[in-house]
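WARN  no MSA supplied for this record, continuing single-sequence
INFO  ligand: tryptophanyl-5'AMP
INFO  echoing inputs
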Amino acid sequence: MKKVLYSATKPTGILTLGNYLGAIKNWLPLQDEYSCYFCVANLHAHTVELSASYVYDRTLQQLALFLACGLDPKKSVIYVQSQVKEHSELMWLLNCNTMMGEANRMTQYKDKVAKGVKSLSTALYTYPVLMAADILLYNSNVVPVGEDQVQHVELARDIANRFNHRFGETFVVPKAMVGKVGARIKGLLDPTTKMGKSDDDPNNVIFLTDSDEEITKKIKRAVTDSLNNIAYDEQNQPGVSNLLSIISACENVPIEEVVKSLNGQGYGALKKRATEAVISVVKPIREKFEYYMNNKDELLNIALLGAKKAQKVAIETINKAKSAMGLI
Ligand code: TYM
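INFO  complex generated
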């Protein structure tokens, strides 16, 4: 029996080069090795205030990008979270097994509170428990994620262990899997924070739907430094280091080799290389994305088939968990 692999992205924006290099690209070869589930986690999108049409459009776009990136519905279960209602149901059961202290420690919520953001929803506070439900529903062994999500997978482990201890062996305890290269791609204008799909400034981010011209313009504007030295040094040269990571991940070449091959050249050459590397990755994805967006019926059919397959397993798990908890 193959081990189970689970991962998801939330449709709060268009997927970025960071999502691809940090997450989706690492998933592709794993489709042969594991029994895989890939989910567009649209219930997670409403943890922040977004309109219905925004979430609907981003969900379809994300699904199309999954397929365009090479996730294959013949090999993997590819589905939309809201089409499998057991996610929300399991979340309640897990809420009963999550400590306030644990929820308080989750950085996304903590960061927003620290920044003084007003009117936070309780969903933003408890969404890591929904994420635990996503993972635990499918008996997942491994969860490939970028570094920012490792804390949430740890929480899923802790909840699973607590539940199993209290109510008897019910859930498989999952493990996070973090890729080495491209695990954390940073913004182009602010290379100290991650390249995020909900960024206010589109010039900080390369979207997987960007045209060649947009990519070229964005990389031209990317922040470097005044040292004029191509070296990987995140502390003192975060912008240059980020471009080197991007080249390395796009070209599948170790960073040291990229640095060596650019030896003695200036930042112009570094940016030209980065632009070519990014376009070679994004262009074929964008073209396939456009195909699916022009064939929405095909896209919705793939989602429905995926949801049916996912729900079969989800129902088994929820029944097991309810009966373990003494719920009729
Ligand atoms: P989300 O949508 O923010 O990100 C999706 C995946 O992409 C990774 N990632 C990055 N990796 C490298 N560099 C970046 N700049 C970058 N930006 C994002 C993230 O680490 C993540 O792996 N809560 C999750 C979605 C989710 C999920 C799940 C994940 C819902 N349920 C169950 C795994 C298992 C989220 O917000 O990811």
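The longest helix spans residues 296-324.
INFO  checksum written, moving to next record
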